């Protein structure tokens, strides 16, 4: 069961790739530039070079599922939000479906469920994530959508929560915890058509993403 | 059969409203500001003031179908493209469905079918239109999607074409012809789940949008 990781060179992507490699989980890291390759090769992680704004259909051959963690991020220009976070995700869904992949794991965002409830400057980004998630749900592909809260660089605790109610309002989650959660999802092949908010918390990942 | 026109104060919206009024077709023009009201009132067109970025659910009461011709346009900032062209359209689809409206008429764009084939600077806009169209198709609402070519301010000829093959490559259409085509769609209630490219051409509108 090989997982194509789209956005492998991102902050979450790299941590996930390293964890998957340690766990012996077969992955293929999609990266944009040859200059990004050494970091992965040093760790024995297979890479494939392709551009999410170009033709990347060939990189799906031989993969069983796809993990989409690419993102221009909420702080880049909204033109890239449209081209990467929205349309890159849409095309990845289409290509995954055309290739008959078994599952699509999407990294979304907690506020994507209701962009109007997000702080004003994040709303365009959340609108893009809302639409990408909706496209995936309607695609017919089995999916899991993970919706982390506000990302931090705190150390991974491997203890998480599923809602603001559970955390008492704390809305953050470390990228390390997101990476651990993604590894869990990559391995939990039976989990389909599910959506999870993810925050730093007190419970084991396997319990929250059950 | 009352049609809610979202984006009524736009260049196409105003022409459509004037044509519909002349034809005795019941419409309700959704506009953003009271200052936009006199133009409509002088012509005896009902208006309702609401913001596509705010709560506009109340304006659907008593309407039978909706025509979405709002657009920040390809030349405004892509943050507004995300909030208006994409998420505004998505919310309008949701509200129309919740209100049980009979049909959703969407003004899209010719290149929205394949954003990567569009000129680079238009791609973010086309990605937004692609996703909005996809959301409408998957919504379960009966729909018509109209995909005009590049808009001009030439006079309306009421003669159109349905493809670049038909026009020999000419990719333009006047806003006046788009407005006439929309009036035809507003009246042609039996037309559902159809998509039409619209260009200036040689054939009557009723023949091309049949």
UniProtKB/TrEMBL annotation, chains A, B:
Residues 7-187 form the NAD(P)-binding domain. InterPro entries: NAD(P)-bd_dom, NAD(P)-bd_dom_sf. It holds the Pfam family NAD_binding_10. It comes from the Bacteria. SUPFAM superfamilies: NAD(P)-binding Rossmann-fold domains. This is SDR family oxidoreductase.
């Amino acid at each position: 069961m090989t997982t194509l990781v789209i956005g492998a060179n991102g902050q979450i992507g790299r941590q996930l790739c390293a964890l998957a490699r340690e766990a012996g989980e077969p992955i293929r890291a999609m990266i944009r530039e040859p200059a990004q390759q050494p970091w992965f090769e040093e760790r024995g992680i297979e890479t494939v070079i392709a551009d999410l704004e170009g033709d990347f259909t060939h990189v799906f051959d031989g993969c069983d599922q796809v993990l989409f963690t690419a993102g221009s991020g909420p702080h880049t220009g909204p033109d890239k939000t449209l081209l990467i976070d929205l349309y890159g995700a849409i095309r990845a869904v289409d290509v995954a479906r055309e290739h008959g992949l078994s599952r699509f794991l999407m990294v979304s965002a907690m506020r994507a469920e209701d962009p109007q409830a997000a702080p004003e400057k994040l709303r365009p980004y959340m609108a893009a994530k809302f639409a990408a998630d909706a496209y995936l749900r309607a695609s017919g592909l089995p999916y899991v959508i993970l919706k982390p809260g506000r990302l931090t660089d705190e150390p991974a605790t491997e203890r998480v929560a599923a809602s603001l109610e559970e955390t008492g309002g704390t809305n953050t989650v470390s990228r390390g915890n997101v990476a651990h959660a993604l590894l869990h999802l990559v391995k939990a092949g039976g989990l389909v058509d599910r959506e999870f908010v993810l925050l730093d918390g007190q419970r084991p990942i396997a319990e929250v993403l059950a």
